[in-house]
């Protein structure tokens, strides 16, 4: 919670091609800002963005699937959509165009790392909750396309990005798999681990995190049943260190926590995640959420050069 009450302004994004809501402190700007993404579930994370605004940041809760007129499925989503959103954000009166971070959880964590690597001139810090270090196959709602015609999650310049295809289950594993196509599986971690054995695909689809022009923080739970986010986060840090990344980078690793480590008030909209056991004990998940949030705030303040009290009305 902020040390004192900060009045927050809610501003709709009034463009037909963008779906999102901007929150910012009512105090005079320009403010540092964070673009906030959700994961597979689609929609926006307005609650989390509002919390960030109460802490002195402007925060754009941006949807990219699952809300009209956006695509229904997470398949070849153009990165240019996010570049347009950042361009819109930069010209808002409350925003400091030179201090923009991106933050996402799960598939949104993969996206945040990818945007930081693709648009380093715009993104100055990245936070990935339970992120991926590689681009994965997209998730269409049609079960046959899902298996027989795999496509990338993202595209750039009209070209699909290289991706790693999901591993096929062994016959003995089929009873463990939900029929909920178009969404990740609660047993998915073993299939992601198996898919990582395709070294050529992983090399082609690995996110070039070393291109990020600023600090990086990744957060994971060691009991993530959805995908192996601790391994992915370690891959991110290893790649940054192998390339001599000159900015701070940190992995917050929580023993016994699962996939749903989140910023406050940013639970996925709708019941999709409630259908799955995504790992972690209740106690470990609570510890991870309570411990990580102050560290995320500190990371953002330091990365975006926010002094105590700056941009929050003190």
Q: What global shape is seen?
A: globular
The helix tally amounts to 8
Strand pairing plus helix content: what structural class?
A: alpha/beta
Strand content: 15-25%
Number of domains: 1
Share of residues in helices: 25-40%
Task: Tell me the Rg in angstroms.
Answer: 18 Å
- Tell me the CATH architecture: 3-Layer(aba) Sandwich
Write out the strand line-up for the largest beta sheet, numbering strands in chain order: 1-2-4-3-6-7-10-11
- Poorly predicted runs: 178-186, 270-275, 307-314
CATH C-level: Alpha Beta
CATH homologous superfamily placement: Alpha/Beta hydrolase fold, catalytic domain
InterPro entries: AB_hydrolase_fold, Acyl-CoA_thioEstase_long-chain, BAAT_C
GO biological process, one term: fatty acid metabolic process
Active site: 106 (charge relay system), 224 (charge relay system), 259 (charge relay system)
Domain BAAT/Acyl-CoA thioester hydrolase C-terminal: 77-304
């Amino acid at each position: 919670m902020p040390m004192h009450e900060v009045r927050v302004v809610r501003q709709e994004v009034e463009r037909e091609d963008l779906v999102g809501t901007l929150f910012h402190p009512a105090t005079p700007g320009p403010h540092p800002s964070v673009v906030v993404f959700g994961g597979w579930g689609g929609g926006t994370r307005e609650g989390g963005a509002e919390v960030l605004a109460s802490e002195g940041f402007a925060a754009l809760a941006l949807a990219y699937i699952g809300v009209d007129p956006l695509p229904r499925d997470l398949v070849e989503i153009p990165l240019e959509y996010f570049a347009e959103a950042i361009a819109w954000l930069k010209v808002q009166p409350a925003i400091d165009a030179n201090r923009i971070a991106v933050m996402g959880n799960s598939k949104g964590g993969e996206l945040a790392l990818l945007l930081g690597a693709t648009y380093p001139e715009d993104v100055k810090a990245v936070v990935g909750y339970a992120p991926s270090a590689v681009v994965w196959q997209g998730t269409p709602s049609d079960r046959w396309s899902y298996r027989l015609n795999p496509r990338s999650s993202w595209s750039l310049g009209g070209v699909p990005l290289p991706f790693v295809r999901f591993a096929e289950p062994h016959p003995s594993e089929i009873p463990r798999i939900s029929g909920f196509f178009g969404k990740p599986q609660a047993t998915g971690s073993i299939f992601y681990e198996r898919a990582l054995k395709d070294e050529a695909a992983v090399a082609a689809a690995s996110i070039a995190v070393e291109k990020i022009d600023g600090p990086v923080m990744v957060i994971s739970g060691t009991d993530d049943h959805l995908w192996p986010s601790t391994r992915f986060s370690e891959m991110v840090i290893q790649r940054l260190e192998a390339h001599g990344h000159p900015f701070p980078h940190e992995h917050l690793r929580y023993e016994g926590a699962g996939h749903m480590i989140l910023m406050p008030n940013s639970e996925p909209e709708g019941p999709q995640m409630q259908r799955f056991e995504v790992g972690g004990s209740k106690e470990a998940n609570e510890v991870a959420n309570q411990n990580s949030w102050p560290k995320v705030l500190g990371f953002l303040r330091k990365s975006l050069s926010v002094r105590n009290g700056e941009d929050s009305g003190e």
